[in-house]
TrEMBL record:
Catalyzes the deamination of 5-methylthioadenosine and S-adenosyl-L-homocysteine into 5-methylthioinosine and S-inosyl-L-homocysteine, respectively. Is also able to deaminate adenosine. Binds 1 zinc ion per subunit. It comes from Methylophaga thalassica. The gene is mtaD. This is 5-methylthioadenosine/S-adenosylhomocysteine deaminase. It holds the Pfam family Amidohydro_1.
Length: 440
């Protein structure tokens, strides 16, 4: 009998593989942070002994969810400026608030608040774009979560950096510092076509190719962005980015609500990935990403929350449901984005977009043990005819009971194991007093 670190017995297990299998009464065996085996519980009992065993016989196990676009420290601005369109929200509220408050301690507290929220909602990886990423990195390190942290660039001075050179220099310092970290990656994150110049984008493309890194950018978020680009450059943003050479499998285009047929073809031909942010797009009335049309053209579409100031939560269960529902309305097709597809978008598709699909994004032998347990025996999720349908259309994040990353338990019966919940709430409330007092 082989001794392993952990055995989790579960009523259902959805590995998120191409065959769309759902396993019943199986065990997942974990050793040295990875999945060693998936097999029927009876067989597992005969073959393995474990240092710890969990019996989750009312639960479904899924791969950890990947939030593929976030600004985690903005959790401290949750509810600060609601019901506004993007550019009013940014110019008149968010950028002034960032100028007044964003600092290393702000980012540390905001990241902790966001990471605690994400763990409690079954997210095990997030792709972040924000200032002072070294403060976010410290929280990622102590929390046990995984993340891609942005090497952010925006063509105006902020509290974080005052020139393109300084943004890149600080981002590269972050990259060097964490290059061997098992759970922290970096990603070039130029803000948007309307805030980053051609020359800077060309430099980022060269760097990303040399360092074999992905690039994430807000693109075609609103109709105003398109008309502004036509007025300034004579072309729509995506055509400008195509001319610069940005369209490639390295690129993760965030939002992409304004896409014509020609642009969908360009994305497909270049292998561009997309981070769809349904709730942020709805709240800012930005537009609708043509998810079903993109998928028909074999474009890889993933899901993100955006920041908590434009959402106003970091709830990947809600985003999966919105993705499935909105896609049907936009495509006028009830068969668009069925439940398993929404779950793929929040897991394996996102892993693929970041070049991490050999490591995370599904529950398969050899992959990292990033696992989420969802309780399906409560009133709200009964009866269970189709477990994946239940996860996407009926369950919510508060049904997440346990979360493991690299085999380490970060949530145990809804209790955080690596973060101090009451301190995070206290710190966030202290920041709210400061932020609120400026607004009065
Ligand atoms: C360069 S750090 C990130 C920068 O982006 C701002 N931001 C947050 N949400 C959005 C969005 O939906 N579109 C564009 N920009 C956004 C954030 O406030 C930071 O300044
Ligand atoms: Zn964003």
């Amino acid at each position: 009998m082989e001794n392993v670190d952990l055995i989790i017995n579960a009523r259902w297990l959805v590995p998120v593989t191409e065959d769309q299998t759902v396993l019943e009464n199986h065990a997942i065996i974990i050793k040295d942070a990875r999945i060693l085996a998936l097999l029927p519980q009876q067989q597992a009992k005969q073959l393995y002994s474990a240092n710890a065993t969990h019996d989750l016989n009312e639960h479904c196990l899924i791969p950890g969810l990947i939030n593929n676009h976030a600004h985690t420290p903005m959790s401290l601005f949750r509810g600060l400026a609601d019901d506004l369109p993007l550019m009013t929200w940014l110019n008149d509220h968010i950028w002034p608030a960032e100028k007044a408050f964003v600092s290393d301690p702000f980012v540390e507290t905001g990241s902790a608040l966001a990471i605690a929220e994400m763990i409690r909602g079954g997210t095990t990886y997030f792709n972040d774009m924000y200032f002072f990423p070294e403060a976010t990195a410290r929280v990622v390190d102590t929390s046990g979560l995984r993340a891609s942290l942005g090497i952010v660039v925006i063509e105006f001075p902020t509290n974080w950096a005052s020139s393109v050179e300084e943004y890149l220099h600080k981002g590269h310092q972050l990259h060097d510092h964490y290059r061997h970290h098992p759970r922290i990656n970096t990603i070039y994150s130029p803000h948007a076509p309307y805030t980053v110049a051609d020359k800077t984008l060309e430099q980022i493309i060269t760097n990303a190719e040399e360092m074999d890194m992905p690039i994430s950018m807000h693109i075609h978020e609103t109709a105003d962005e398109i008309s502004q680009s036509i007025a300034e450059f004579g072309v729509r943003p995506l055509e400008r980015l195509k001319q610069i050479g940005l369209l490639s499998p390295r690129l993760l285009g965030v939002h992409m609500t304004q896409l014509n047929d020609q642009e969908i073809t360009w994305c497909a031909e270049a292998g561009v990935h997309i981070a769809h942010c349904p709730e942020s797009n709805l709240k800012l009335a930005s537009g609708f990403c043509p998810v079903a049309e993109l998928q028909k053209n074999n474009v890889n579409v993933t899901i993100g929350t955006d920041g908590a100031a434009s959402n106003n939560d970091l709830d990947m269960f809600a985003e999966m449901r919105q993705t499935a529902l909105l896609a049907k309305a936009v495509a006028k097709d009830a068969a668009a984005v069925p439940a398993h597809n929404a779950l793929e978008m929040a897991t394996i598709n996102a892993a693929r977009s970041l070049g991490l699909d050999q490591e995370i994004g599904s529950l398969e032998v050899g992959k990292q043990a990033d696992i989420v347990a969802v309780k399906l025996s409560d009133i709200e999720t009964q009866p269970v005819f189709d477990v994946v349908s239940q996860l996407v259309y009926a369950a919510s994040r508060d049904k997440v009971t346990d979360v493991w990353v690299a085999g380490k338990q970060l949530l145990n019966s809804r209790q955080l194991t690596t973060l101090n919940e009451s301190k995070i709430i206290q710190d966030a409330q202290q920041w709210a007093i400061k932020i609120g007092s400026l607004g009065q």
